[in-house]
Amino acid sequence: MPTSHIDLRSDTVTLPTPTMRQAMATAEVGDDVYGEDPTINALEELAATTAGKDAALFVPSGAMGNTAAILTHCRRGDAIVVGSLAHIYIYEVGGAARLNGSPYLPVPNLPDGTLDPAALASCLGMGEDIHESHVGLLCVEDTQNMCGGRVLSVAQLRDYAALAARHGMPMHLDGARAFNAAAALGISLAELVAPATSVMFCLSKGLCAPVGSMLAGSQDFIAEARRVRKLLGGGMRQAGILAAAGIVALREMVDRLPEDHALARRLADHLGNIPGIAIDPTVVETNILFFSLADASRDVADFTAALAREGVLMSGFPDGRIRAVTHYGITADAIDRAAAAIARSLVA
Ligand code: TLP
Fold first, then answer.
1. Ligand 1 centroid to residue 130 C-alpha, Å
2. How many domains does the chain have?
3. Do the domain assignments include residue 227?
4. C-beta of residue 193 within 8 angstroms of C-beta of residue 200
5. Are residues 59 and 89 in the same domain?
6. What is the DSSP letter of 125?
7. pLDDT-based confidence at 3, cuts 50/70/90?
8. Which of 60, 238, 257, 294 would you label with 280, given CA atoms 20 to 30 Å apart?
9. For 111-140, what is each residue's pLDDT tens digit?
């Protein structure tokens, strides 16, 4: 994509910062499969401390982190309980089913990102009857991407973890954007993820690292997840070059996330004033916003193509919604120009 575009398709499009490039160029490295990459070891220690867990594992992607968690927590064939709009359920190529024979028990996500309580109770209670799979894991997502970056509170996560524990299972948190949730709540990552047995969080989204996510949990859990990462082809060698950027991400890029949230609200406020756009600006809590076209007969792909011709990139979804994600490198001026381009694209 030309760099002149205002790219709001995702916060995954962020580029490594100059400090990251510098850290990558000078990183001390070794063979991580032997446990001998000092920079990866340092990142894993920093990530464990940041998340308030005993240990952490560097993985190439969020999807691999979630999949490794599922394969580590569950026996083969155990079902997993997951939100109907969860990334694990919709966007991870059916990894739990394909790689672990795990059926999904989807629980409807409510508009605020939480899980329908009655359906959740019923799914967690399955597994007694011989017709049913054992249920091995509850997966929750915070922020909830497809609900619009909605934030689940610590109290909510604590309730889910307690419910899962009552049914004898752990809770995994897909915290791809957990730092955004923590920032919105004004708390630390460790406070947010304390209720989760394991958590995956990404370095490669709003935090700008080119590659990588962290999986964190107990020592035993991470030791086994390390074996599963090898199984999945994620045993990397001198990947300290990548971990160096991850260390910068954790040290320097977390505190600025509220800037992204303010820009998403700015865009939402603009869109609220554009006739022809359907949006509830009050539900924008972090760096993700969704809107739709009041004219439901207008093809979304046609609209996003018109918008791209105006120099603004956003993601259209089959349900008619359009997603914009703010991130490092996007300015208030770019948001104002994006809003003006949206108004023009409505009539293009
Ligand atoms: N999300 C990407 C796309 O895959 C949709 C995006 O642009 O939002 N959990 C959540 C909640 C995510 O949003 C994502 C990525 C992942 C996991 C997977 O991370 P990666 O892309 O590193 O495998």
1. 35
2. 2
3. yes
4. no
5. yes
6. T
7. low
8. 257
9. 999 999 999 999 999 999 999 999 999 999
Q: Which of 70, 145, 208 to mutate to test the pocket of ligand 1 (most atoms within 8 A of CB)?
A: 145
129 & 193 share domain: yes
Of 199, 202, 323, 325, best ligand 1 pocket probe by most atoms within 8 Å of the beta carbon: 202
Determine whether the shortest distance from the Cβ of 91 to ligand 1 is under 6 A: yes
Instruction: Please compute the mean of the pLDDT values over residues 331-338 and round it to a whole number.
Output: 98
For ligand 1, whether the C-beta of 324 sits within 6 Å is no
> What pLDDT, on the 0 to 100 scale, is given for residue 348?
75
Q: Which of 7, 8, 9, 12 to mutate to test the pocket of ligand 1 (most atoms within 8 A of CB)?
A: 12
Residue 152: name the closest of 286, 8, 57, 319 by CA: 286
Q: Which atom of ligand 1 lies nearest, measured to the CA of 143?
A: 11
Percent helix, strand and coil across the chain, each to the nearest 5:
45, 15, 40
| pLDDT tens per residue across span 275-329 | 999 999 999 999 999 999 999 899 999 999 999 999 999 999 999 999 999 999 9
**Structural domain boundaries, residue 329:** 6-13+256-345
With a 6 Å cutoff on the Cβ, whether 287 touches ligand 1 is no
Cβ burial of 174 (10 Å; 0-12, 13-18, 19+) is: buried
Of 252, 281, 306, which residue is a domain's last? 252
Q: Which residues of 316-329 are buried (b: 16+ CB within 10 A; e: fewer)?
A: beeeebbbbbbbbe
Please tell me the distance between residue 132's alpha carbon and the centre of ligand 1 in angstroms.
30
Q: What is the CATH number of the domain that holds 202?
A: 3.40.640.10
pLDDT given at position 1:
46
Residues 215 and 266 in one domain: no
Q: Of the residues 217, 233, 252, which one is the last residue of a structural domain?
A: 252
User: 327 in ligand 1 pocket by Cβ < 6 Å?
Assistant: no
Same domain as 34, residue 164 = yes
CB-ligand 1 contact for 204 (6 Å cutoff): yes
Residue 62 CA to ligand 1 centre (angstroms):
6
Co-location of 189 and 337 in the same domain: no
What's the one-letter identity of residue 47?
A
- Residues 262, 125, single domain; the answer is no
Same domain assignment for residues 210 and 303: no
Residues 185 and 71 both lie in one domain:
yes
As beta bridge partners, residue 288 has: 325
